[in-house]
Design brief:
By secondary structure, this protein is an alpha/beta fold. The protein has one domain: D-tyrosyl-trna(Tyr) Deacylase, Chain: A (3-Layer(bba) Sandwich). Helices cover 20% and strands 39% of the residues. It is built from two helices and eight strands; from the N terminus they run βββαβββαββ. The strands form two sheets. Strands 1, 2, 3, 6, 7 and 8 form a six-stranded mixed sheet that branches. It has a two-stranded antiparallel sheet with strand order 4-5. α1 packs across α2. It is globular and about 45 Å long.
Length: 148
């Protein structure tokens, strides 16, 4: 799985003019399932996200994880993280998991975060979403479970 994490002071998702999710301080997590991913991959990604020390401690150092900072997670599916730009100028997305598999893995990742006691909300899989965020830092981290 691939994920793009952004530390935010707030983030929200709107679909068809209706806000469906909102968090305060925490992480906006864009997630893309790849064909070889499994339930274990989704759980491992959630565990990695939960452990990352991306939040400031009292000394201003990035020493706290999302739970220690009392942050929340907003998980949004984003198949475009699988973009292949090696040929031409139009990205290909054949490296992304098929939609039925991708939706299941995306939701499993979100549920795994919830199981780790992280308040978690989600976007709407397959929808044309408007995502608003206030990046904090900015701190943006790329994760790929296929790479160390």
């Amino acid at each position: 799985m691939r994920a793009l994490l952004q530390r935010v002071s707030a983030a929200s998702v709107t679909v068809d003019g209706t806000e469906i999710a909102r968090i305060g301080p925490g992480l906006l997590i864009f997630v893309c399932a790849m064909p070889e991913d499994t339930y274990d991959t989704a759980k491992a990604l959630a565990a990695k996200v939960a452990k990352l020390r991306l939040f400031k401690d009292d000394a201003g150092k990035m020493n706290l994880n999302i739970a220690q900072s009392q942050g929340a997670a907003l998980v949004v599916s984003q198949f475009t993280l699988a973009a292949d730009t090696s040929r031409g100028t139009r990205p290909g997305f054949s490296y992304a998991a098929k939609p039925d598999v991708a939706e299941t893995l995306y939701l499993q990742c979100a549920h795994a975060l919830k199981a780790l006691n992280i308040p978690t909300q989600t976007g709407k899989f397959g929808a044309d979403m408007s995502v608003a965020l206030t990046n904090d830092g900015p701190v943006t981290i790329w994760l790929d479970t296929a790479r160390p």
